């Protein structure tokens, strides 16, 4: 292991004095379904290979509840949910909570505690919230419950999202995917040429 470079990691503890997050005026309101991240999102869009996670806004307008039906195709151990797919579910649900507060942000760091095995056939319910927004940093946390909201805890997660602008996608996404979203070749090339 001597040749493995150690990459420094950093804390994602939200600062204690941060202001309470407020709902973005264009975000859906309490009780409404949230929007999918985009039409091909493998977390929440209705496409093959997606976890098909569905989320709704809670009464506070900021938190969300999400539903994930665990199927055969989500197995890791025999008849049990793959841990990485629980992380995907958290990434999607926490990444949906942040869209209630900020326009676009991407996951920078996430940590997950796996507390109970999740059998195939279970419906997982997740509660996710934004704890604080400080500059570009969006601190989120969530809980996944077995079978019913506030039931037995299957896992918990925290994630730091970092706000990005359209240039993040213009620079890094495949050009054909950007063109499908309406971006012109000139705009894409200009974003890629920028420092
Ligand atoms: C027509 C045009 C179309 C445009 C497209 C429009 C819309 C697209 C539609 C929807 C998609 C929107 C969102 C998707 C959201 C959710 C989907 C589920 C979630 C995901 O699937 S998402 C994919 C996985 N995700 C990534 O693909 C990120 C890869 N990554 C990066 O792209 C960079 O790494 C980035 C941007 C994160 C930061 O880079 P950067 O250069 O902008 O900023 P910088 O490094 O300065 O960080 C700023 C401050 O965050 C702190 N910080 C950074 N990283 C940290 C860490 N790991 N731990 C602790 N602190 C950290 C720094 O310490 C600093 O803090 P401080 O200011 O206090 O010093």
UniProtKB/TrEMBL annotation:
Q: Which UniProt keywords apply?
A: Apoptosis, Cell membrane, Cell projection, Cytoplasm, Fatty acid metabolism, Hydrolase, Lipid metabolism, Membrane, Transit peptide
- How is this protein positioned relative to the membrane? Peripheral membrane protein
Q: Which residues are in the Thioesterase domain?
A: 79-138
Q: What is its main location?
A: membrane
Disordered: where is this region? 1-43
So what does this thing catalyse? octanoyl-CoA + H2O = octanoate + CoA + H(+); (5Z,8Z,11Z,14Z)-eicosatetraenoyl-CoA + H2O = (5Z,8Z,11Z,14Z)-eicosatetraenoate + CoA + H(+); decanoyl-CoA + H2O = decanoate + CoA + H(+); hexadecanoyl-CoA + H2O = hexadecanoate + CoA + H(+)
A single GO cellular-component term on record: cytoplasm
Regarding protein family, the annotation reads: Belongs to the THEM4/THEM5 thioesterase family.
Protein name per its UniProtKB record? Acyl-coenzyme A thioesterase THEM4
Q: Tell me what organism the protein belongs to.
A: Actinomycetospora cinnamomea
